[in-house]
Amino acid sequence: MTFVALLLAPVSAFAQEAGKTGIVLATPGTFALLFQVSERIAVRPELGFSTSTNDNNSLTTPVTGSAWSLSPGVSGLYYTGKWEALRAYVAGRYAYAYAKTTATTAGGSIESTSKANTLAGSFGADYALHQRFSVFAELGLAFVHTSSSTPAVTISPTANVWAIRTAVGGIFYF
What we know:
Layout: H1 2-8, E1 21-27, E2 30-36, E3 41-56, E4 63-83, E5 86-105, E6 108-130, E7 133-149, E8 158-173
Antiparallel strand pairs: 1-2, 1-8, 2-3, 3-4, 4-5, 5-6, 6-7, 7-8
C-alpha cells in the first residue's frame, strides 16, 4: 500500500525536459521513439518486425517454410514520481500485429495469416545513468485478441488471452 501511495504522490521535479526525444531499444524485439510531451507525460510509438525461414528435408516429404510479422503500437506514459535519477510511471499500450506464414511441399503451398490486437497496462520505472541514457523496466497485464485464417481451410479461429507483459530496455536521448 505504501508503494502505491508513493507512486501516486505528486512530485514537483522531474529530470526529463518537455520536448526531449529518445530512441528506445527494448526486449521483446521492439524499436521505438520516446517523445517527452511534458514533465509527466510521454508518448512512445513502436515498431516490431521479424522474419524467418525453415527448410526441413529430414521428413519423407520435405517442407520449406517462411514467415514474417509486423507489429506497430503506441504507449502513453504518465510519470507518477521521481527520486533522484529514478522515475516511476504507469503506461497504457495498444499494439496491432499482422503475420503471414507459408509452407511449401512438393504438393503445393499453404498460406495462413494471423492478426492480433493488444491492450495493456503496466507499471514501470526508468533510471537515468547519464543525461543522454536511461534504462527502464515494465511489468503489467495485457489482453490479446487474435484471429487467423488459412484459405485452404474453412475455419478461422479466434482467441482471447490475458497475459503478463514485461519489457526492459534502454533509451538514448538526443
